[in-house]
């Protein structure tokens, strides 16, 4: 468990560094959230031989996003750190083509710790996260872009999600209705059982 915890947080940290390299040069973007490193230590003389060590964060500890994205957190929505965390999630989602999402962002100010990562069931480039892949779908449906998303030129997820839903509903509208099917099916095949099997 502790090895996975280190792997997840340090992987998220690498994404945060790439995000910072792209965001910091932008005029007016300002400070970027940082995921602090976590270290695994081996203590052979101890009953629990492995432990993690990280920098102590002093100040008000805030959860900017929860794992599944359902909880409304005003500090996430209204604060600069919260908005930049949301943008970071959107940036990672876009950079990985929707295959990976850094979530459960929490910490003090711009310093974050104990994060989670959701990947699709098959993983992403050999990496599997520690959160359900359903969080990715929930994020895509619930994320609201802010000024930092716009500054980075990120595509609106609402538009993408709405287009996908519209395409699905259009496909279902284009399917032949029962009267059309009946006209094309010979009389002997019109029994309900045959009609159902012809749809599948």
TrEMBL record:
Bias-annotated ranges (Polar residues): 169-181
Compositionally skewed regions (Basic and acidic residues) per UniProt: 188-200
PROSITE patterns, per the entry: ALPHA_KINASE (PS51158)
MF (Gene Ontology): ATP binding; protein serine/threonine kinase activity
Enzyme Commission numbers on file: 2.7.11.1
Principal place of residence: membrane
Keyword presence, Repeat: yes
Region (Disordered): 160-200
Superkingdom classification of source: Eukaryota
Pfam families from the UniProt entry: Alpha_kinase (PF02816)
InterPro entries: a-kinase_dom, Kinase-like_dom_sf
GO cellular component, one term: basolateral plasma membrane
Catalytic activity: L-threonyl-[protein] + ATP = O-phospho-L-threonyl-[protein] + ADP + H(+); L-seryl-[protein] + ATP = O-phospho-L-seryl-[protein] + ADP + H(+)
EC category: transferase
Localisation per UniProt entry: Basolateral cell membrane
Residue ranges occupied by any Alpha-type protein kinase domain in the UniProt entry: 1-157
PANTHER family (alphabetical): ALPHA-PROTEIN KINASE 2 (PTHR47091:SF2), ALPHA-PROTEIN KINASE 2-RELATED (PTHR47091)
Family: Belongs to the protein kinase superfamily. Alpha-type protein kinase family. ALPK subfamily.
Role, per record: Protein kinase that recognizes phosphorylation sites in which the surrounding peptides have an alpha-helical conformation. Regulates cardiac development and cardiomyocyte differentiation by negatively regulating Wnt/beta-catenin signaling.
Name of this chain's protein: Alpha-protein kinase 2
């Amino acid at each position: 468990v502790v090895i996975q915890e280190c792997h997840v947080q340090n992987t998220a940290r690498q994404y945060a560094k790439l995000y910072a390299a792209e965001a910091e040069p932008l005029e007016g973007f300002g400070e970027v959230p940082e995921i602090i490193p976590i270290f695994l230590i081996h203590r052979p003389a101890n009953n629990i031989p492995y432990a993690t060590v990280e920098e102590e964060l002093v100040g008000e500890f805030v959860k900017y996003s929860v794992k599944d994205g359902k909880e409304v957190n005003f500090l996430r929505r209204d604060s600069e750190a919260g908005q930049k965390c949301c943008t970071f999630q959107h940036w990672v989602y876009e950079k990985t083509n929707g295959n990976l999402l850094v979530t459960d962002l929490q910490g003090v100010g711009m310093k974050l710790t104990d994060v989670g990562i959701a990947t699709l069931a098959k993983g992403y480039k050999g990496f599997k996260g520690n959160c359900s892949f359903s969080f990715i779908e929930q994020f895509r449906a619930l994320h609201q872009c802010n000024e930092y998303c716009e500054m980075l030129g990120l595509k609106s997820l609402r538009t993408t999600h709405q287009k996908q839903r519209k395409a699905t509903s259009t496909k279902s509208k284009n399917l032949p209705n029962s009267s059309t099917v009946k006209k094309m099916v010979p009389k002997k095949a019109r029994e309900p059982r045959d009609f159902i099997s012809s749809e599948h």
